[in-house]
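Entry for the shared binder. Reason: the reviewer on the internal report wants the predicted structure included alongside the sequence.
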Amino acid sequence: MAVTSLLEAALRRDRWLVVGGLLCVTLASWLFVLDGAGTGMSTLGMSGLDLALGGGRRMPMEPAAWSPGYAAIVFAMWWVMMVAMMLPSASPAVLLFARIRRGKPAAGAAGPASGRTFLFAGGYLAAWGGFSLLATLAQWGLEASGLLSLVMASTTAWLGGLLLLAAGLWQFTPLKQACLRHCRSPLSFLMMHWRDDALGAVRMGAGHGLFCLGCCWFLMALLFFGGIMNLWWIGGLALFVLLEKMVPAGHRLGQVAGAALAGWGIWLLAGGAG
């Protein structure tokens, strides 16, 4: 009886360790994003919120010179921003992994569930690290072409229109719908690809991350339209992704948003912005 009580207590501590870890990483990521993610530019300032709060804007005066060091800062900015935006919507899958892990007969022999769970989450975030690398390269190319402003938003209506139209149409593609179904219910993926070893946990997390990439990458690309450091767009997209994956009619919500984005893009391409 005492052994059973000790085991139950250990499982509860392990569960809270996972939940606490997710909350801490998410909160730290959002605080880092609010502070500018190492770029020296406050997202509050880029969004016009700091003046309302009694502060002063920190706005760039001239384009930053790209160097290996600056590229590393931009990559870190994108990756931390993806952690802040995507980890909340991925938390159910992470917690589901932890629950299955705790129920495995050999789980105790292979170490606590929290250790493998953090590896699973690390694999998931590594997938978004790959996206962040591509986003960094895209930002460098757009800035070099003069297609991004000093506040990291598109400078031309045609680029903004194309981004909106592409993101809107993507919401209706079979690949988007398949990835969204997985993100809304990852249990079958976990059961089919389950492995107890540490490398297996990382690979499973990365696999889940790739599905989420397929679901959301075009939405994240909209930051090039609204402003990479614009808190309204960062928070709005994060909330939309969370609702699309969590609410019962999330797939319908995604299609409604897709129609609205496509219509907005067509309006811009047709000269609606003047």
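Summary line for the report: Residues 179 and 211 are 5 Å apart (CA to CA).
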